[in-house]
């Protein structure tokens, strides 16, 4: 794989996208001033993957045919954390999800506070409230979408509610690739297994993780290739193990990097404060102090599986080889990303 251009890296991060400041509304926050009535697309939108983009495209065509604005309706936190036995790791933070949504050209984003009380609402009451807030002309969801107490708000029941409320409801078939629906669950599994190229195909962009650079074990410096030890927030989605090529974004510059995911098997202890996934990044061509810096790490391809080395000299030789692979494939100069973050 060759180096990525600035446009592809910026699109993967929704870099330079500025979401309008939110205005409090009943039960949530509305970004943008879409006007009423409108067309709404409803979903969790974690990851903003190819299936989400297809849903939004279909809703956008409907909105254009009616001459109405399009509003994406989403939830915070993700409903899986309230409805499921435990929260699912998030592919995107709330802010990243909003930037990704806004980058698709929607006219507004409504973020609804998802609580146990909201989850227990009758679906008709929920939809009545949403219609009162937005002034709905039509609603677009995935075919398996359900809401309300007990998940009783199926597409068929929402359509029946809409018939009485004067709102068209559309349930769209999920996008499938290789015979399986594109879903956040599928992408989380791919990333955890280290298949970052498949994740990129399903996301239509590179997956990335936020993190903070902390002090590590110091082996990299002693070997002649200082590393940035990036600790991601607990609940982040990252490979369980493996060595990858990718980029580390520092102050708008995307530096090529060799990245070790997880604790290297050769060593028994990690960096300080490793409450979430640990990514050890050797930035090609970078010199400077990154301790305490907030960065984004994008993984573009797997270079090799993690393994234990019996000799530190063998480890040093292999890691230097991985860094040289990155240098050949991604270059050694940073890619500048334009616009604000």
UniProtKB/TrEMBL annotation:
Listed SUPFAM superfamilies? Nucleotidylyl transferase (SSF52374), Riboflavin kinase-like (SSF82114)
Catalysed reaction per UniProt? Answer: FMN + ATP + H(+) = FAD + diphosphate; riboflavin + ATP = FMN + ADP + H(+)
Q: What pathway does this protein act in?
A: Cofactor biosynthesis; FMN biosynthesis; FMN from riboflavin (ATP route): step 1/1; Cofactor biosynthesis; FAD biosynthesis; FAD from FMN: step 1/1
Superkingdom of origin: Bacteria
Q: Which GO terms describe its biological process?
A: FAD biosynthetic process; FMN biosynthetic process; riboflavin biosynthetic process
Q: Which GO terms describe its molecular function?
A: ATP binding; FMN adenylyltransferase activity; riboflavin kinase activity
Q: Which family does it belong to?
A: Belongs to the ribF family.
Name it: Riboflavin biosynthesis protein
Q: Where does this protein come from, organism-wise?
A: Granulimonas faecalis
Q: Name the gene for this chain.
A: ribF
């Amino acid at each position: 794989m060759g180096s990525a251009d600035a446009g592809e890296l910026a699109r993967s991060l929704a870099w330079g996208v500025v979401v309008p400041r939110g205005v409090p509304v009943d039960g949530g926050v509305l970004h943008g001033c879409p006007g009423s009535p409108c067309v709404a697309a409803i979903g969790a939108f974690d990851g903003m993957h190819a299936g989400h983009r297809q849903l939004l495209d279909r809703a956008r065509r409907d909105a254009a045919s009616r001459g109405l604005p399009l509003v994406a309706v989403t939830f915070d936190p993700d409903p899986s954390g309230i409805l499921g036995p435990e929260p699912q790791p998030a592919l995107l933070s709330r802010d990243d999800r909003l930037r990704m949504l806004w980058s698709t050209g929607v006219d507004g984003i409504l973020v609804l506070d998802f609580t146990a009380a909201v989850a227990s609402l009758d679906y008709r009451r929920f939809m009545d409230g949403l219609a009162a807030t937005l002034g709905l002309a039509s609603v677009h969801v995935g075919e398996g979408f359900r809401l309300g107490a007990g998940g009783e708000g199926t597409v068929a029941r929402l359509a029946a509610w809409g018939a009485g409320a004067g709102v068209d409801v559309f349930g769209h078939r999920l996008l499938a690739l290789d015979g399986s629906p594109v879903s956040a669950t599928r992408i989380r599994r791919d990333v955890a297994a280290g298949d970052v190229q498949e994740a990129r195909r399903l996301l239509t962009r590179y997956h990335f993780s936020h993190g903070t650079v902390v002090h590590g074990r110091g082996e990299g410096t002693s070997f002649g290739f200082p590393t940035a030890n990036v600790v991601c927030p607990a609940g982040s989605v990252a490979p369980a193990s493996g060595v990858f090529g990718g980029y580390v974004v520092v102050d708008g510059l995307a530096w090529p990097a060799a990245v070790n995911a997880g604790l290297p098997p050769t060593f028994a202890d990690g960096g300080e404060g490793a409450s979430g996934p640990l990514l050890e990044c050797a930035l090609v061509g970078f010199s400077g102090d990154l301790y305490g810096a907030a960065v984004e790490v994008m993984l573009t391809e797997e270079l090799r599986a993690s393994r234990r080395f019996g000799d530190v000299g063998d480890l040093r030789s292999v890691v230097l080889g991985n860094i040289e692979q990155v240098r050949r494939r991604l270059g050694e100069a940073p890619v500048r990303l334009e616009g604000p973050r």
